[in-house]
Design brief:
The chain is of the alpha/beta class. Helix content is 31%, strand content 24%. Bound molecules: zinc ion.
Length: 436
């Protein structure tokens, strides 16, 4: 089901809507936001200079650091009395990023999340278990609102308490699960360890995943654990932009449709900040349209992707962003080689003897970067056979070497010995700042 007519507009129609909204958004932002007015003065651009969509390039970028510098509410463009909701994202260092919504912002957000839920195959008949942590995180309340708006029934389970999660999945006949992909995988494994088969003993058929990216290899793992009947899609957003609802995968599984009548995407070279031609891979930059509480112009998301403007088999014409291949700031530089954790994941998931959980440790020993990857065996009987174990270790190392061009250390550990995560998985520990 396609929720909004804007999702099937022609390119001409969508660009017309974007241009009208961009012009009014820039007049509004210039008037209401002191930090933006200053930025625009510095760039020598006024709202009336925006006459075409191409003029977007004249506008200055917004960075994550702008939020830090104006903490908590310096970028807000409305009086506190007009705000109806706050959310905050956990800052990896120091203060969180605080975002706010007016009544109209909440309405737009709700409808964008509903679109994304429909893209992923949700219907009004679904019983949805939301296993994201509630609280100030936008994911849980965002999906909660969107699914209710669609007419589905929502169980606000929140994260943690795996026993209770499984009990509700069974007893309530849950058909749709909202979670991070890593938690969904963990939950599926726990269900199996209790002697249940998700494909036969549960009714869950749809997964709406977010909070972290899902690689194709991880989707395959998900099918191994939950069964092939489980259609799982991911959706994209971040609290600065609104929360979830910016883009979502449809069931054709060929990238995430961006809600273009509310978000204009650009792809730039993260080093030079130059806009790249259509189809090239680079950093995603988003301009939010019509946002009242917290206008956001050319926001550097840090996420690496490419855009595909070809219409999709699902009937939607909105541009698709390729599933994320990493964040610009997740990239590790190891002995001068650029390494994304998703590349490591791709290699590991293709090796049948090891499970989907892994940890990456980077250290500096004798002035050299050393990367150690810990993975779990699926069958602990392998631990008794030195020959098989060292053959497996050698195979993992050589597959990683051909993917990354780097030598790595491998630690094979017993099944279920690595930490499981209820929210975003933390897989990388980089100790190099401390050592020499
Ligand atoms: Zn589609």
């Amino acid at each position: 089901m396609i929720w909004a007519k804007e999702e099937t507009f022609s390119r001409e129609e969508i660009e017309k809507v974007q241009l009208e909204k961009l012009k009014s958004t820039m007049i509004y932002t210039y008037e209401k936001s002191v930090p933006y007015r200053k930025k625009m003065h510095a760039a020598g651009v006024k709202p009336e200079d925006i006459r075409t969509l191409g003029d977007l390039r004249k506008l200055p970028f917004t960075y994550k650091s702008d939020f830090r510098e104006s903490y908590p509410m310096g970028l807000f463009a409305v009086d506190k009395k007009d705000l109806v909701r706050f959310h905050a994202s956990s800052g990896t260092t120091g203060k969180p990023t605080v975002v706010g919504y007016t009544k109209q912002d909440l309405e737009v957000w709700l409808n964008n999340v509903t679109r994304v839920a429909c893209m992923g195959g949700a219907t009004s008949d679904d019983i949805c278990q939301i296993s994201f942590g509630y609280g100030t995180f936008t994911g849980a309340l965002g999906l909660h609102g969107g699914l209710e708006n669609l007419g589905a029934a929502v169980i606000p389970m929140s994260s943690g308490n795996t026993n209770k999660q499984i009990m509700f999945l069974q007893d309530m006949g849950v058909t749709l699960l909202v979670a991070t992909p890593s938690y969904a995988l963990h939950l599926g494994e726990e269900i199996r360890s209790r002697g249940l088969d998700p494909a036969k003993d549960l009714r869950v058929k749809t997964g709406l995943f977010g909070g972290e990216g899902m690689t194709e290899a991880m989707r395959e793992e998900m099918h191994k654990v939950w069964g092939t009947q489980f259609v799982c899609t991911q959706n994209y957003g971040m609290s600065e932009l609104c929360g979830p609802g910016v883009a979502g995968e449809c069931t054709e599984l060929c990238g995430m449709h961006i809600n273009e009548d509310w978000f204009i995407p650009e792809i730039i070279d993260p080093e030079t900040e130059e806009v790249l031609p259509p189809g090239e891979k680079g950093e995603l930059v988003i301009t939010c349209l019509g946002k009242e509480a917290l206008p956001l112009v050319r926001y550097r998301t840090g996420d690496l992707t490419r855009l595909d403007y070809a219409p999709c088999k699902c009937g939607r014409t909105t541009v698709r962003m390729e599933n994320l291949s990493g964040r610009a700031d997740d990239m590790l530089v190891i002995r001068g080689v650029n390494v994304f954790p998703t590349q490591i994941e791709e290699v590991l998931f293709k090796i049948p003897e090891i499970g989907p959980h892994y940890e990456i440790l980077v250290e500096r020993k004798n002035r050299l970067d050393v990367m150690t990857i810990t993975v779990e065996l699926i069958d602990d009987r392998l631990l008794d056979s030195y020959t098989k174990l060292s053959e497996l270790e050698g195979r993992i190392k050589s597959n990683l070497k051909s993917m990354l061009g780097l030598a790595t250390n491998i630690r094979l550990v017993a099944p279920h010995s690595l930490k499981r995560f209820e929210g975003k998985a933390k897989r990388v520990t980089d100790l190099r700042k401390d050592g020499l």
